[in-house]
Design a protein that fits this description.
This protein has 250 residues and is mostly helical. Helix content is 50%, strand content 11%. It has two domains: 153 residues, no CATH class; 87 residues, no CATH class.
């Protein structure tokens, strides 16, 4: 599966590119409400196995959940949640999100607080380990930053780009490009150049040629198109006049 296809899948499922790679062909449910991701079609036996796993998960919904503040390990609400669903409702997440981090020593950030979730009460040894090392909090913050970065990258890569010739204000390729990357490849320019000039109303010149282009995240409206066209004519006339002076040796 190519990177572009994975990006499209991640955007469609509203999960990060990293999370998709982590669970692809692994047999575990990822995301929220939970998806099984494969690069190949499953046979009947594999489908039955996943259905049995889903039934085990349904039974597991009635387990108690201990939720702790990751900074001081105080028990949320001073008692465990009676059911998995109760914990999910309290933190306003789906049960799959709770299960994903359950007993993992990785916290989830809810209501402005990093929270550990466990299937049993913490003993003094594990409490001391978490408080002393702070590994769980550090890892959680790292993965949250990475997931946010990947989500932004996936959204950015999936963003359509309308590219217009700066002199004629005609749409290049007669259609928007599916992403910044595809537009940069077609034009032979750096993606960063497009991002910098996107919706800036300023034409950018390609390094390898004298051609200039406008970059927009939406199709041009008639009013803006007319405004850009009107600004082109004086520039063209000035350029023509300068050329004539050079030819005449003035």
């Amino acid at each position: 599966m190519c990177a572009a296809t994975k990006n499209k899948a991640a955007v469609s499922l509203e999960i990060s590119y990293t999370l998709l790679n982590l669970w692809l062909d692994k047999g575990g449910a990822c995301g929220d409400p939970g998806y099984y991701l494969y690069t190949y079609p499953l046979n009947l036996y594999q489908i039955k196995t996943l259905k049995d796993k889903a039934e085990d998960l349904r039974i597991g919904n009635y387990r108690k959940i201990w939720a702790y503040d990751a900074n001081n390990l105080e028990l949320i609400n001073n008692k465990p949640f009676a059911r998995l669903k109760d914990a999910a409702d309290y933190f306003n997440v789906r049960t799959a999100t709770i299960l994903k981090h359950l007993d993992s020593k990785l916290a989830i950030k809810r209501k402005g607080t990093l929270v550990y979730t466990f299937s049993k009460e913490l003993d003094s040894k594990l409490k001391a380990e978490l408080l002393d090392s702070k590994i769980g909090v550090a890892l959680t913050r790292y993965f949250m930053r990475r997931a946010t970065r990947d989500a932004r990258r996936a959204t950015r890569d999936a963003q359509k780009v309308w590219v217009y010739d700066a002199e004629s204000i005609q749409l290049i390729n007669n259609a928007p490009f599916a992403s910044v990357k595809k537009a940069s490849i077609f034009l032979g320019t750096n993606p960063e150049t497009i991002k910098i000039h996107l919706d800036s109303h300023k034409a950018a010149e390609l390094r390898k040629s004298a051609n200039k282009f406008y970059y927009f995240s939406n199709e041009l409206e008639a009013e803006l198109r007319a405004k850009l066209l009107s600004s082109v004519k004086p520039i063209m006339a000035e350029s023509f006049g300068a050329t004539q002076k050079i030819i005449m040796g003035l």
